[in-house]
Write a structure and sequence with these properties.
Elements lengths: L1 H25 L2 H8 L1 H23 L4 H36 L1 H6 L3 H10 L1 H38 L3 H12 L2 H47 L6 H12 L5 H14 L3 H31 L3 H14 L2 H22 L9 H4 L4
Helix pairs in contact: 2-3, 3-4, 3-7, 8-9, 9-10, 9-12, 9-14, 10-11, 11-12, 12-13, 13-14
């Protein structure tokens, strides 16, 4: 019996690893883990995005930590409210235009020809209505999870300066010094790669949104067109460009459909402007900005984006550039011997 327990104590990590792999791949454990950790992952994303603003207010402007947090969250919710105030009138106007075009279509059809297809497709319509209610329920659940994530991130940022410092405090206390510093160096390189990518992507989306806004106004003035809502199209372009691969396509389709309600010339000019600025962004702006922020050459940025796009994976396209930049930085750090001197000074305060 004693030999059995000694053998088990020696090989229990292997047993735990095999059990974890079995649950992960055979019992759909990855989906279960992601579902359970979804609020935590959302909170980490909120912390990651909001901590630079909070730290700027508290460290640079010397405001109290609680006041910095309150100002950051008020600014965040204020931005959402302003976004809705800009979007809702344009959405209502677009809906009004669509509804105003229905009577002319209805006048061309007799009551019988109008009702017969509707009755034939009534079961499909009811199924679509059920799907809509399910989607609405999922949306409300997602909003609840988002509010929980915001509350979690608020309490974390109130007691911690950053995710990096919390990781440094934990790893230095749990692991040997060499292992902790090597892992912290990897986390620091990963943080730098993704933070640079996110800031560059936001800047590129903002540039393209401004370009669509001003070029739409210029097209209306020069060609005497009635392209609607340049501000709405700019905001829609900004949000669509944050979604890899299919985001620009969806943004182009939505803006073109909105312009089509005002005429075919408006739709053609809007589509041409969107496609033109997308090509300028893909071939000129993105390689330059992403290459400058990540340390990669524009050639490798284009090569990585093209390779990821050919595989058709949204997630791979989203992380391809920062992951390549991280791999390059990791190889350089390995060649230099993983020196802890490159760690942020605030992380080194927790070094024993």
């Amino acid at each position: 019996m004693k030999s059995f327990f000694s053998s088990f104590s020696r090989y229990w990590p292997v047993f735990v690893l095999l059990t974890g792999l079995y649950i992960l791949f055979e019992k759909n454990g990855l989906t279960l883990i992601i579902t359970c950790l979804r609020p935590l992952l959302a909170a980490v994303a909120c912390i990651y995005l909001l901590e630079p603003v909070v730290n700027f207010l508290s460290d640079t402007l010397r405001l109290p930590r609680l006041l910095s947090l309150l100002l950051t969250y008020l600014g965040f919710f204020g931005f959402l409210v302003l976004l809705l105030l800009f979007l809702i009138p344009d959405l209502l106007q677009a809906l009004s235009d669509v509804l105003s075009s229905l009577p002319s279509l209805y006048a061309e059809l007799s009551l019988r020809t109008y009702l017969q297809p509707f009755l034939e497709k009534l079961p499909e319509f009811l199924g679509g209505l059920l799907d809509l209610l399910t989607s609405l329920s999922s949306l409300l659940s997602g909003l609840g999870s988002f509010l929980v994530a915001l509350i979690m991130s608020f309490y974390f940022l109130l007691t911690h300066h950053s995710l990096g410092e919390a990781a440094a405090a934990s790893l230095y206390s749990l692991l040997p010094l060499a292992a902790a510093e090597r892992l912290l160096l990897i986390l620091n390189l990963l943080d730098h790669a993704f933070r640079s990518f996110v800031s560059s992507k936001l800047l590129l989306s903002l540039i393209q949104a401004a370009a669509i806004f001003f070029s739409t106004i210029a097209a209306n003035l020069l060609f005497r067109l009635s392209i609607p809502s340049p501000l709405f199209m700019g905001l829609l372009t900004f949000l669509a460009n944050l979604i890899p691969l299919i985001g620009p396509i969806l943004g182009t389709l939505l803006c073109s459909f909105l312009a089509l309600l005002y005429g075919i010339p408006e739709m053609i000019v809007t589509s041409c402007l969107l496609l033109l600025w997308q090509q300028i962004d893909n071939l000129l702006l993105s390689p330059h900005f992403l290459g400058t922020s990540s340390g990669l050459s524009p050639f490798w940025v284009l090569a990585v984006i093209t390779a990821a796009a050919s595989l058709g994976s949204l997630w791979l396209l989203l992380i391809a550039v920062p992951l390549t930049a991280f791999a390059q930085s990791l190889f350089r750090a390995w060649r230099e011997g993983f020196s802890a001197r490159s760690l942020p000074p605030k992380w080194l305060r927790y070094r024993p």
